[in-house]
Recover the amino acids of this structure.
């Protein structure tokens, strides 16, 4: 059994740390602007202008069954959809605002169809819910708000009542967690607390206090006690969520130093929402390596797609999902039910390891492909059988020395040497599976 123990969580994270790989979906009317989901903030877009998106939002090609099939093929086991992002637009038929999909040409409850489609493919269902809301009339103007630089910002702020907004969030979360069956993840986003006594509202922020986060979380847990909730309200719950960088160690609790349940969330290119002109699409190697790196440090990966406003995944997103599909089809055994390798196993250069939680199998991911031996100091006497994972073909190994007559061939009592074929197998990152004694 794995010796790594994580800090206890209030929700049920047992399935989560097994499944390891999920799909994030950022979809809202910002897909029409097609230049980042923060465009309203970035461009301080006037309300009237931004509302045109809702007026014309028409995802006529929305086919969540197709998304779900692609997610499943990519090896993703759960999914998290933006039910509402910072723009405030609601992707379901909520009772609490008119700013919702059913009042657009879309004319239907998009969340409902998403839930049904992904559930039918056997994926677990998550809801992202933005704490920030740049549409709600009671959401006070602060340093991130699109109206922050308006000459009449102070004026506009008068009469706004953040308490009413906190109640609105509880009502909406209640709705989302009541009307769509079992929901496995609730992903709140995000807090930026500040000293709001500063006269300049462009310095104001929001956090647990403004969200009334304790009540909000209690509301969620009263409906779905096992649900996994992230920490972005700033009240610690289940999930630590590093984004847009890869941790280089298992994430630890800042105060106690305990290992925690963590999930990196990342994008295929440099935006969460559909961004037509963004060009930094990650290479296939990088996509696969990010997944392996994450699991090799005991984490999960939530990989994002930003569907177009017409409701389909563009060709670049489909290609990236296909990269995962091709690799996971043959190699998912090194991901599901796996975690960081035990400290007794040291990975050589160019290799990243994972280990099955029951301890019986070790997976060596060859980021660099060596010629023609993989030398593994410390492994002698521990391996019963070795094979490539993708085709289950045996790999022969020697112990104590590299089997070669030349002088200088490595030898050591604890050395295990795997012989590799000269030509790298036709797999982006080949995996060696070691059955341990
Ligand atoms: C950030 C951004 C946001 C994105 C999120 C995903 O907090 O505000 O646009 O939804 O990260 O982690």
């Amino acid at each position: 059994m794995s010796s790594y123990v994580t800090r206890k969580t209030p929700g049920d994270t047992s399935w989560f740390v097994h499944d390891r790989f999920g799909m994030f979906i950022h979809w809202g009317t910002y897909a029409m602007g097609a230049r980042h989901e923060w465009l309203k903030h970035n461009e301080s877009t006037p309300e009237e202008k931004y509302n045109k998106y809702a007026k014309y939002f028409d995802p006529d090609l929305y086919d969540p069954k197709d998304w779900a099939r692609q997610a499943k093929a990519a090896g993703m086991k759960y999914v998290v959809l933006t039910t509402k992002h910072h723009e405030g637009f609601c992707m379901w038929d909520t009772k609490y605002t008119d700013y919702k999909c059913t009042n657009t040409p879309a004319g239907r409850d998009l969340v409902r169809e998403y839930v049904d489609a992904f559930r039918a493919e056997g994926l677990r269902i998550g809801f992202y819910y933005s704490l920030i809301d740049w549409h709600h009339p009671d959401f006070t103007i602060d340093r991130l708000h699109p109206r922050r630089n308006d000459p009449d910002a102070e004026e506009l702020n008068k009469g706004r009542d953040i308490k009413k907004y906190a109640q609105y969030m509880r009502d909406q979360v209640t709705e989302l967690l009541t009307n769509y069956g079992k929901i496995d993840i609730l992903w709140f986003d995000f807090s930026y607390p500040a000293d709001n006594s500063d006269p300049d509202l462009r310095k104001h922020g929001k956090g647990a206090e403004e969200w009334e986060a304790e009540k909000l979380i209690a509301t969620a847990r009263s409906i779905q006690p096992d649900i996994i909730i992230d920490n972005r309200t700033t009240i610690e719950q289940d999930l630590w969520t590093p984004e847009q960088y890869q941790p280089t160690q298992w994430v630890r609790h800042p105060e106690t130093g305990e290992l925690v349940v963590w999930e990196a969330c990342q994008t295929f290119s440099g935006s969460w929402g559909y961004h037509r002109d963004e060009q930094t699409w990650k290479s296939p190697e990088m996509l696969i390596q990010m997944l392996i790196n994450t699991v090799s440090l005991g984490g999960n990966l939530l990989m994002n797609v930003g569907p177009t406003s017409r409701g389909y995944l563009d060709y670049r997103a489909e290609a990236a999902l296909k990269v995962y599909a091709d690799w996971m089809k043959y190699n998912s055994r090194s991901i599901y039910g796996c975690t960081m390798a035990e400290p007794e196993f040291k990975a050589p250069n160019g290799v990243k390891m994972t280990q099955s939680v029951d301890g019986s199998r070790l997976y060596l991911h060859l980021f660099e492909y060596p010629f023609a031996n993989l030398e593994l100091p410390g492994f002698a006497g521990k391996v019963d059988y070795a094979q490539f994972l993708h085709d289950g073909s045996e790999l022969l190994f020697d112990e104590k020395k590299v089997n070669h007559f030349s002088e200088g061939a490595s030898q050591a009592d604890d050395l295990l040497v795997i012989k590799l074929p000269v030509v790298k197998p036709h797999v982006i990152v080949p995996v060696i599976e070691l059955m341990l004694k």
User: Anything to note?
Assistant: The radius of gyration is 24 Å. The domain at 341-436 is CATH 2.60.40.1180 (Immunoglobulin-like). The mean pLDDT is 97.
